[in-house]
Write a structure and sequence with these properties.
Helices cover 38% and strands 21% of the residues. The chain contains 5 helices and 5 strands. The longest helix is centred in the middle third of the chain and has 37 residues, at 77-113. It is globular and about 70 Å long.
């Protein structure tokens, strides 16, 4: 269980962040933004009366069965648009559900065997004080945020922390896939139990005291803001 004292890292925050130089935070008590986002996710549909979150999968199945029963290979544009809406809504729902299953499975394994390590649901995700790592995670988060409401000018802060960290390979998390709970628990065992090989793609989970030293322009690392 690596402990750090006054160690320097970076933290990438969304554009809406109100962090400022001199701010201090106690990390590990409240849920982090990542967890709040997927736990409160709502699927939005238009028109609303077409489908509801509870029945979106059934609505898609019924529409598909209707088309098969008619044995039509060509459908009207209105039906096509409805089918695409249902498909998109179902995929959004599956993504949120799979993400939730993964996170709850990982948290269950942590609580059972690795409770001394930071929780993914309450930690702050940090980036090592290494330009290569900063560049990787800046681009990676940009990719992850495509198609979400979180697009905008992200901010990067240099921070000083004292507490507990868990540096681990993200290969056990990606790509997000449909797995059984047993498979997720197997991946969670590796995630919490294995040590990192010091890759720039590693993620760092942190709980403890965090101080914001300064906001750093991403151009310092040779990258654009977007």
């Amino acid at each position: 269980m690596p402990e750090v004292d006054n160690a320097i890292f970076y933290r990438i925050e969304p554009w809406i962040s109100k962090w400022a130089e001199g701010d201090t935070f106690s990390i590990g008590v409240d849920r982090n933004r990542f967890t709040k986002d997927w736990q409160s996710a709502r699927i939005k549909f238009s028109p609303a009366q077409t489908v509801t979150p509870e029945y979106v999968n059934l609505a898609l199945t019924k529409t598909y069965d209707d088309l098969v029963e008619r044995k039509q290979h060509r459908i009207e544009r209105e039906e096509y648009e409805k089918l695409m809406l249902l498909l998109k809504s179902t995929l959004d729902g599956i993504h949120t559900s799979v993400l939730g299953v993964r996170e709850y499975a990982f948290e269950a394994v942590r609580l059972e065997k690795y409770s001394q390590l930071p929780s993914r649901m309450h930690c702050s995700f940090l980036v090592p004080d290494d330009p290569r790592c900063v560049k990787y995670w800046w681009d990676e988060l940009k990719t992850q945020e495509q198609g979400t409401q979180f697009l905008g000018e992200r901010k990067i802060f240099k921070v000083k922390v004292s507490g507990i960290i868990h540096k681990v390979s993200q290969e056990h998390l990606t790509p997000l896939r449909t797995c059984s709970v047993i498979q997720w628990r197997s991946l969670a065992e590796k995630y919490w139990g294995e040590s990192s090989d010091e890759s720039e793609e590693d993620e760092i989970l942190f709980t403890g005291n965090l101080s914001v030293l300064e906001r750093v322009q991403i151009s310092t690392f040779g990258l654009q803001k977007s």
